[in-house]
Amino acid sequence: MLSLTSAALSFNAAAPSVSAVSRSAVRPVMQQAVGIQQGTYGGVVPTRGAVGSADGTILVQGGSLRTWSYRSPAVEQVQVVLTTEGRPLDADIELWHGPDNTPVKMRVYNENGLLRPFSAVIETPRGPNTIAIRNIGQVEFPLGANVVADNVDQPSADCLASSTTIQGGALRTYAFDPSVDSVQILLKTDGRPLNARIELLQGPNNNKQVIELYTEDGLDRPFFAYLVTPGSGNVVRCVKTAPVEFPMTASVVPHSINQFPSSEPVLGGDVVLGGDGAGW
User: Fold this and answer.
1) Which class is domain 154-258?
2) What is the reported pLDDT for 134?
3) Which CATH architecture has domain 25-153?
4) Are 198 and 215 in contact (CB under 8 A)?
């Protein structure tokens, strides 16, 4: 009896308190730090990319699904960041708002999730809302997912000021200098549905990243994202996949500029197109 009583006391001492479980209603459940396993429903601890990492990144294996739920209506925006260890990234991102209601859908493909991580802001007004991320790649291609509601990135003044109208079925291309390390993309409508495809090309018909986007209301839920553009020859192509009755406005501007670009070749960087140089 003494041994059982001491074991029960030790178990109660290790259990999380009620106040710890109800910590921070704004932050998602899956974003709590490793080691303080409170906040997980049913005592289930999520699989994480690195044990002891406090950034909230979760390892999503190929073919599996992870969700982040926000019950507080104060959460109006969340930022989704997807990365890999250098392998391709193929994922579905959905916003669930109420039963059988999916106002935002995204299909994301990335040739190299380490060199070009995916980062996008999803509008989540009128909670509760749930972000669902499904890794539709094979089991050999896991990805790291992180969803945060604090300090969400916002478009710059240049991004808000510079916008062009893209009619249904049309496309626009934006070429960038090799010194541009990343660009901002803002897509919205006048309240009509938003259907678009965003492509990052480096070379003729060489898609480095593709985003297929659907939003039921492009004014209430505009799309804002960052695209990392290392190397030279980067072109962003925005295609309006909806009919001509559903135009959209697009703004694609540089976000970060490297004033001293390195002359050393980087992974996925400059491509040699001919053999006329010295040594051939």
Assistant:
1) mainly beta
2) 96
3) Sandwich (2.60)
4) no
